Amino acid sequence: MRTLDLSPLLKSTIGFDHMNRVFENAVGNNDVSYPPYNIEKISEDDYRITMALAGFSEDDLVIELDGGVLSITADGSEEEADPERFLHRGIAKRAFKRHFRLAETIKVLGAEFENGLLMIDLQREIPEHLKPRQIKIGKTVAKPKIVDENAA
Predict the structure, then answer these.
(1) CA dihedral 137, 139, 141, 142 (to 10 degrees)
(2) 69: exposed, middle or buried (C-beta count within 10 Å: 0-12, 13-18, 19+)?
(3) Over its length of 152 residues, how does the chain's per-residue pLDDT go in tens digits?
(4) Which of 120, 72, 63 is nearest to 96 (CA)?
(5) What was the pLDDT predicted at 52?
(6) pTM of the entire predicted model
(7) Where does CATH 2.60.40.790 sit in the chain?
């Protein structure tokens, strides 16, 4: 498999070194398709992750947010006393661990589990210091001190 080298792009940026790991994970052999999920953009700043988890209950699921990574896990242990009970078993209840890397401005609002669907609501919150603002031209509040090197 061909690897992607982003070092030429990263030489003139600061603080984006984690993007290399994101791209490596995206191009790597992460062809996991279970459980199926959707990512929806509800509005300009609202998102929802919906996962199809037939056969699971709320108690089977663990949702964690750690360092900007949202993880949903389930052990999928079966408590079947009689394995011969099923003639066909098409609803999989196997263990999984799904990760979603969230941007720094994304906040997890909550999760809901209904009719076999896990829905996690997310919202983008841009801090005030990152929002665009206009700078008015006028007098400054405090003028910088100019130190005269020859006065010593």
Answers:
(1) 120
(2) exposed
(3) 556 665 666 555 545 555 655 665 555 545 467 889 999 999 988 999 999 998 888 999 999 999 889 999 998 666 555 677 878 878 778 889 999 999 888 999 999 999 999 999 999 888 888 788 888 888 766 766 777 767 65
(4) 72
(5) 93
(6) 0.65
(7) 34-127
Buried b (16+ CB within 10 A) or exposed e, 115-129: eeebebbbeeeeeee
Sign of CA dihedral 109, 122, 71, 75: positive
Buried residues in 75-91 as b, exposed as e (16+ CB within 10 A): ebeeeeeeeeeeeeeee
Say yes or no: domain 34-127 is CATH 2.60.40.790: yes
What's the full length of the chain, in residues?
152
3-state SS class at 24? helix
Written as one string, the DSSP assignment of 31-71 is ----S-EEEEE-SSSEEEEEEE-TT--GGGEEEEEETTEEE
* DSSP classification of residue 2: -
Distance of CA 29 to the CA centre of its chain: 19
